[in-house]
Amino acid sequence: MEGSGWKDYQKTGAICGHRLPLGLKQADKLPEPIFTPATKAASGHDENITELEFAKITGTETVAKLKSLSLAIYKEASEYALTRGIIIADTKFEFGLDNTGNILLVDEVLTPDSSRFWAESYSPGKAQASFDKQFVREYLETLDWNKQPPAPTLPQEVADATTERYLMAFKLLTGNEL
User: Fold this and answer.
1) C-alpha separations of 129 from 29, 87, 136, 138, 154 in Å
2) Is-contact 40 34, C-beta < 8 A?
3) Interval 26-70: pLDDT, tens
4) What is the Cα gyration radius of the chain?
5) More confident call, 135 vs 176
6) Worst-scoring range by mean pLDDT, 1-5, 33-37, 60-64, 157-161?
7) Three-state secondary structure along the chain?
8) Domain assignment of residue 153, given as a range
9) What is the tens place of the pLDDT at every residue in 67-121?
10) For 112-138, how does the pLDDT look when each residue is reduced to its tens digit (9 = 90+)?
11) Structurally, how many domains does the chain consist of?
12) Number of other CB atoms surrounding residue 91 within 10 Å
């Protein structure tokens, strides 16, 4: 549990309406994966919502389909990644509808930009060694920036270190160099 989910849990003991066990630590593994819907807030950031709130927007049938799809994709991907030395702590899927109402999986899927890829050196209770954009987030947290556009320019060393992490994730997951 990390990011906005960790912050929500610290405040409420829940994430997106899912009541979680007491006493969890940062980066603890949840007993089971959970479906955590979000929508874009007016400012463009993701805003966590409950499944009930999501159902009011999309309908209960759509929620059931998206929950089933999300958990199945996550389960298969996380099991595979674990065999390659990466823990997929969480991931974001973005779905849409085509003109006939069919569900489409859109945007990037299971990348270091949409997922938390942790190293096998996982140890709950603290931030984890990762192969994802968390490195950039941590750098940005050191700045006096109000998180509104325009974003500050990243120093070359932060960009290079992030690239190295992404390339390592690719290599671990595929067995190939990019």
Assistant:
1) 15, 11, 13, 12, 20
2) no
3) 999 998 999 999 987 766 678 889 999 999 999 999 999 999 999
4) 17
5) 176
6) 1-5
7) CCHHHHHHHHHHCEECCEECCCCCCCCCCCCCCCCCCEEECCCCCEEECCHHHHHHHHCHHHHHHHHHHHHHHHHHHHHHHHHCCEEEEEECCEEEECCCCCEEEECCCCCCCCEEEEECCCCCCCCCCECCCHHHHHHHHCCCCCCCCCCCCCCHHHHHHHHHHHHHHHHHHHCCCC
8) 3-174
9) 999 999 999 999 999 999 999 999 999 999 899 989 999 988 999 989 999 987 8
10) 989 999 987 889 999 888 888 888 988
11) 1
12) 19
Give the CATH number, domain containing residue 156. 3.30.470.20
Residue 106: beta bridge partners?
94
- Tokens linked to 6: 């960790």
Q: Among residues 142, 137, 126, 125, which one has the least CA distance to residue 161? A: 137
Greatest extent of the chain over all pairs of C-alpha atoms, in Å: 47
| C-alpha to C-alpha distance for 100 and 106, rounded to whole angstroms | 16
- Going by C-beta distance under 8 Å and a sequence separation of 6 or more, which residues neighbour residue 77? 88, 91, 110
